[in-house]
């Protein structure tokens, strides 16, 4: 039983050709947005209940705030005095808004 070893021989290397690249693969330079759409879909599925709860809470808080200001002042003259005060004071304007519609 003899073993033969060939020294100095090289195996030919195969170079990539245009037919070796699958068109569905990412570009060779790398795509920085690869998988971004899939990530957004995943986040949308995962957080849809949380987003709906936040949206409902914001709308509810806004509605309660508007109802409390309107219910706080019973007569139109009281509401007008609040509007004058809100337009004159920058701190109230920062917290309550510009007072449009009062």
In percent, how helical is the residue content? Answer: 55-70%
> Outline, from the CA principal axes?
elongated
Q: Uncertain runs with pLDDT below 50, 5 residues or more?
A: none
Strand percentage: under 5%
| Helix/strand order, N-terminal first | HHH
Number of helices: 3
Nearest-integer average pLDDT: 76
Rounded to an integer in angstroms, the radius of gyration calculated over CA atoms is 35 Å
How far apart lie the N and C ends? 105 Å
Structural class: mainly alpha
How many E strands?
0
Task: Please give the largest β-sheet.
Answer: none
Molecular structure report:
By secondary structure, this protein is mainly alpha-helical. The chain is 56% helix and 0% strand. The protein contains 3 helices and no strands. The protein has helices at residues 36-72, 76-88, 90-96. The chain is elongated, with a radius of gyration of 35 Å. It starts with 35 loop residues before the first helix and ends in a 6-residue tail after the last helix. The model has no long low-confidence stretch (mean pLDDT 76).
């Amino acid at each position: 039983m003899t073993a033969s070893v060939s020294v100095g021989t090289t195996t030919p290397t195969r170079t990539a050709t245009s037919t070796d690249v699958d068109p569905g693969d990412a570009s060779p330079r790398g795509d920085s947005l690869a998988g971004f759409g899939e990530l957004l879909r995943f986040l949308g599925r995962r957080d849809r209940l949380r987003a709906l709860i936040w949206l409902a809470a914001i709308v509810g808080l806004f509605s309660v705030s508007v109802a409390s200001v309107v219910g706080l002042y019973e007569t139109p003259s009281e509401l007008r005095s609040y509007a004058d005060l809100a337009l004159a004071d920058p701190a109230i304007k920062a917290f309550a808004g510009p007072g449009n519609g009062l």
